Structure formats: C-alpha cells, structure tokens
Amino acid sequence: MFHSRLRVRVGPSMDQLVCITDKVNSGQPHTISSGLFEGKVAINIKGFTNPSGEVVPADYFDREDRKGITWSIQVQGRFLQENTADDIMFGNTFDKRLKLPWGSGVALKFMKYIDPTLEHDLMSDTKPWALSPLIATMPHFMHERIDDVRASPLLEDKRSKSIDHSFPPSHSIGEDTSQLQFAIAPSHFCGSTDSSLSSFILSPTSSFSNLSSKPSSLGSSVRYSLKKPLEKAQLKKKKTPTSSLGLRTASDRRSYFSSPEHREEIVFGPEDLITTDFCYGYLQFNPTLALRLPGGLSFDLMKYWDRHPVRFVCCKRRKPDDKDRGDGQPTGDIFWIVSIETADESDIHPGHDI
Q: What is the pLDDT of residue 182?
C-alpha cells in the first residue's frame, strides 16, 4: 500500500537540499540562492498529505485554468551567469536504474508527444535522466528584462511599481515573451545597416582616409570626432532590437524554440527575470502514486517506484568535454532542484536540512 505521506526538499544543489514540506500548498515561496541562480520556488501538490497525516488543500487547484492539474512547480528567478536558452535544461534525474513497467514505451511516446525536444537515457544502469530545454518544455513561461541589474526577485522594492511582482502571484502564471527580443545575442540581430556602418568607419577607402592628406592633428581630430558618435550609434543599434519575436501563445513559443538554432540565439543573464509554472495532471500522488495517460491508460507506479525521489532539476546542458560531477549527476552545473520523496518514519522537521 502506498505510504502517501510526502516530504519536499529544494535547493541549489544535491548537498544543499532543505525540507520545505510545511510550505507546500501554502502559497509561501522558498528562496534559492547560489553563485549560478537566485530566485524563489513555490510547490503545489493536489491531495498532498504531510508527514503528520494531514491532507493540505490548495486554492491553486480551484482555479478554472488549472482544472485537471495535479501538481505545480512555480519558479521565479535569474541566472547569474550568461547561458543560451539551448543550454538551460529542465527535467528529471534518478539515482539508480529504473524498473520500467510493461507498456512504458507508450508512456515515452506520450512524453515525446507533449515535448518533442525531450532527450533521455531512462534505460541507464546508473543514473537515468530525461531533460528538455527549459524554454521549450515549460507550459507557462514569462520573461521580463530588468532595467537595473542590481534589482532581483529578492529585492522587489527596486523594481517597477506598475507590475505585480508578488510571488507566487494570486493569479495563475501565464505567457509573456514580449520582451524576449532583448535577450537575443547581438550577433543575431546585427543587420546590413550595421555592416555598412562598420565598413564606413573602418574602411581605408572611406572618407576618413582622405583626411590623411590634411595636417595630422586636424585629421586625427576630425576622425575621432566623427568616429566616436558613429560607434556609439552602432552599439546602441546592436543593443536595441526593433521588434518582438511575435510569439503570442505558449504553443507559438514551444514550436519556435523546438529549433536548436532559435534557442542558441537567446542568452539569459542577470538582467532577465524568468517566471515559470511547470504543471500537469499526468502524475497523481494521492491516494496512490500513478501515471495517467489520455485514453484511460494508467500505471500504478508504486510497483516500480522503489522509493526513488521524484526529482525535478534545472541545470546546464552537459557537454561531451565536461568532467564528471562530484555528485554523480548526469548533468552540467545545477541551478535548482525540487525533490518529492516519501517521508521517513523518523519524520521531518520542517525548515531543517535532511
């Protein structure tokens, strides 16, 4: 029988996980901070039973646009070092070989249907994993360019008063990529105008070269006075895209960023505030742990779970030349982790490291 009492731990790495079971379904966020990521996370699980045996309700699941949802991981934060959208991954990692049920091929096809960008090695004998680019897999994604780099989700008073920055918000997180063009790497939106301007500034055949016949001091002065404003204009143009990407819906975004080339154009850094809600209804945690697929197909995962933590990880894409991690995780650097686990008989002391 399923031991439905759960604990939830979060943190910036495997060795810094903190129990936040008392915050599940409470609407209270937990802060995550490291040299790579700064932000907040809020967890909702339908029918969540805490270690004391109490079922904790959540208003989140009563919202009209969240009907049928059974769990939600809401995150708002900044990546403190620049990474392309192709290198920021999100998904699941496991500590040992999975005992996959009969018919798991159908489940994998379903997962691939939901997310065509999914990459996985769930058959691994050591560290199974399934990861996707975050920008392409999130069902709800919002991006905001922060004018003052010193502002952060942890310092809300420094940010625009015209926008509701409370987290988690009282309304459901939706879709907003209207400022995403500001995260496009300069090399991807420099147009022909920039090229001609650069040529004009640097070409020895330009009018600047004709100044060489003038007295050297005059020539140098004129070259400098003309060149600097042009260089500034060129730099400003490079930093100011002229239009948005035109991605109006989550479907538009996920389709557009199914392309690795499009993901590589986007670079997220400290100036980019990202808010996401990873929420679905295909995992059920109460009264038993089950995977439910369209068409009435359901898997009782308790027969195969073997007390694995259900671990959600946001991490860097692992590159072929990356060294093995000290914690053995099949990923690059980790930004944050949410781990949903069965509660130990010794129980949990909320807010303490486990």
A: 95
In this prediction, residue 262 carries a pLDDT of 98
Give residue 342's pLDDT band: very low, low, confident or very high (50, 70, 90).
confident
In this predicted structure, the answer to whether residue 91 has a pLDDT above a threshold of 80 is yes
Write 59-67 long-range contacts (CB < 8 A, 24+).
59/27, 60/25, 60/27, 60/172, 63/171, 63/172, 65/172, 66/172, 66/279
CB-neighbour burial class of residue 50 (10 A; exposed 0-12, middle 13-18, buried 19+): buried
pTM of the model: 0.77
Instruction: Give the residue extent of every domain in the chain.
Output: 6-184+245-342, 190-239
**pLDDT tens digit sequence for 116-133:** 999 988 888 888 889 999
Place of tokens 């919002």: 142
